[in-house]
Amino acid sequence: MKFDELAQQILENVEGMNTSWEDEDGKIKVTIKDVIKYLDGNDIPIKTVSLDKIKPIIIDQDYKNKNKNRVNASNLEYPIIVIKKNGKYKSILDGNHRAFKAVNSNAKNIKVREIDLSSPSTPDDYKELFDYGITPLY
């Protein structure tokens, strides 16, 4: 399955594809569907990126026990979505399990789509919601 097919499934409300982010007041809500529409609508390309750049932004989760099944089921054919700011990767918005699987399987690269918070064309809601700190795994 290609990324555009996955995106279509997400847009059609396939079960399990209901990820969303909200501000504390509940005034702003962005769904994974919104993010994919933004990426596609702005022709944000899929890039192949060294895992050396991704490893420091994988969040700290119990990937080997509690989340083991999600890691094993993840498909590395689909790109992860990363947040970029001031030229550097800041966090993984979607795909931490895939990123961990790639690192754990000794892959050298991973497919990535970027949301650049420094870009004037990035929606203000994205800049507000996705400019957060993380606790990295590594």
Written account of the structure:
It is built from six helices and six strands; from the N terminus they run H-E-E-H-E-H-H-E-E-H-E-H. Strand 1 (20-22) and strand 2 (29-31) form a beta hairpin. The strands form two sheets. It has a four-stranded mixed β-sheet. The protein has 138 residues and is an alpha+beta fold. The protein has a single domain (28-129), classed as Conserved hypothetical protein from pyrococcus furiosus pfu- 392566-001, ParB domain. The longest helix is centred in the first third of the chain and has 10 residues, at 32-41. It has helices at 3-11, 32-41, 51-54, 68-73, 96-104, 124-129; strands spanning 20-22, 29-31, 47-50, 80-85, 88-94, 109-116.
What's the short version?
This protein is an alpha+beta fold and 138 residues long.
As for the CATH topology, it is: Conserved hypothetical protein from pyrococcus furiosus pfu- 392566-001, ParB domain
Helix content: 25-40%
Radius of gyration, rounded? 15 Å
**Total domains, how many?**
1
Report the sheet-strand fraction.
15-25%
The largest beta-sheet arranges its strands as 3-6-4-5
- Tell me the number of helical segments per DSSP (H or I, 4 or more residues long): 6
Q: Overall pLDDT, averaged?
A: 90
Question: What topology emerges from the helices and strands here?
Answer:
Elements: H1 3-11, E1 20-22, E2 29-31, H2 32-41, E3 47-50, H3 51-54, H4 68-73, E4 80-85, E5 88-94, H5 96-104, E6 109-116, H6 124-129
Essential attributes:
32% helix; Conserved hypothetical protein from pyrococcus furiosus pfu- 392566-001, ParB domain; 6 helices; 138 residues; globular; alpha+beta; two-stranded antiparallel ribbon; four-stranded mixed beta sheet
